[in-house]
Amino acid sequence: MIIYGWRNRINERYSGQFHCPKCDAQRAYKYMTVDRYLTLFFIPVLRLARMSEYVECQTCLRTYTLDDLAGIPANSGMVTEFKAQSLASMQQKNAGMGCAMAVIGGILLAVGMLILLGLVVFQLTDENGPTYNLVGFFGLLVLCPLPMVLVGLILTGAGIIARRKALESGTPSTAPVY
């Protein structure tokens, strides 16, 4: 039995000084993100989505979204930088997910083709002749390797398209090249 689910994790990304609207002064902050992860056996395995991001004042402990802070001239540079980094992180994640989808699709395609080859060889070398039990042979082909090959092809194509779109959308030079 596989136990799976999801869990949100709060991560501290940056810290520094900003102008807090409540304190009306320069205060220390922490830039936090809340990410949703897929879990297997209660272990976070894969980040699924960014749920939210906010700035937390370390003095009054109030939280502000980036849109809340964008109207304050003293914080405009910080907000612009965080939004650019968030966009770059999302583009890099999309490129990585496209690559992962293409690899998983390729593996499924290869395994499906190997199973298909094994079934054909077994059918052709059967002691009763290659035409013995053709209904069972075609039924086995439809149930096992053909769906696996089709899913592999679809995943590979979707992964290549997703990676290409992410790279064409202006991923910054900090993104890894596969």
Number of helices: 4
The total number of structural domains is 2
Helical residue percent band: 40-55%
**Low-confidence regions:** 171-178
Order of helices and strands: EEEEHHHH
Structural class: alpha+beta
How would you characterize the largest beta sheet? 4 strands, antiparallel
| Average residue-wise pLDDT | 84
Strand content: 25-35%
| Number of DSSP strand runs | 4
Name the shape in a single word: elongated
Cα-based radius of gyration, to the nearest Å: 25 Å
End-to-end Cα distance, whole Å, is 35 Å
Describe the structure.
This protein is an alpha+beta fold. It folds into two domains: 4-72, no CATH class; 93-168. It has four helices and four strands. Helix 2 packs antiparallel against helix 4.
In brief:
By secondary structure, the chain is α+β, with helices and mostly antiparallel strands.
Notable traits:
178 residues, single chain, disordered C terminus, four-stranded antiparallel beta sheet, alpha+beta, 4 strands, 2 domains
